[in-house]
Structure to design on (193 residues):
């Protein structure tokens, strides 16, 4: 039997469940991560060999990590290089060709594309977003591991990822851990029993 790759979601969110402000604002994110939180994130990404992104997020994500990798900041250089070097699949129906190196475009049916990637040989796939791609993956139950980083802020309104579900999605808690900066990391898996 073929061992399928898992799709792991890693996403920052507010206490009230938003992943960005109403206009995509990200100024609420907590950035003063200590070594313990950085190590936690490093452990989550250790098993991945491909990154899944929506087009809008890719436009900022890919150049930002490439820039950080070039800066050779020893504190984040190795991780930034990993984020740059890993193959990426960008989901877009509007791009004709990739605008970046190490990128494959996926423009077909989301469920078919993700399931095709899950069946390919390799390690886990990391889904970073954006909000609409993640919401669609949640709606179609394509995520095998939810790694949510709850920031100590309430926005009141913004971009949700848990909207559009047709029914309940039962999850089971695998791990939770608070960090000194106020972020609480929670890891859930779908309860498919």
């Amino acid at each position: 039997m073929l061992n399928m790759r898992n799709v792991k979601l890693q996403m920052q969110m507010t206490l009230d469940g938003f992943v960005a402000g109403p206009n995509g604002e990200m100024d609420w994110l907590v950035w003063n991560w200590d070594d313990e939180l950085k190590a936690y994130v490093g452990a989550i990404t250790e098993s991945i060999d491909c990154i899944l992104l929506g087009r809008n997020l890719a436009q900022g994500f890919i150049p930002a990590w490439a820039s950080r990798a070039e800066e050779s900041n020893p504190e984040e250089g190795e991780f930034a290089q990993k984020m740059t070097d890993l193959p990426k699949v960008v989901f877009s129906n509007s791009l004709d060709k990739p605008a970046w190196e190490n990128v494959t475009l996926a423009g077909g049916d989301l469920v078919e594309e993700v399931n095709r990637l899950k069946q390919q040989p390799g390690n886990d796939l990391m889904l970073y977003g954006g909000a609409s791609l993640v919401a669609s993956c949640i709606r179609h139950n394509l995520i095998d591991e939810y790694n949510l980083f709850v920031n100590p802020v309430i926005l009141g309104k913004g971009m949700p990822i848990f909207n559009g579900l047709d029914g309940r999605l039962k999850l089971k808690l695998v791990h939770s851990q608070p960090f000194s900066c106020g972020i609480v990391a929670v890891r859930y898996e779908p309860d498919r029993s």
Notes: The chain has a mean pLDDT of 93. The CA atoms of residues 80 and 107 lie 27 Å apart.
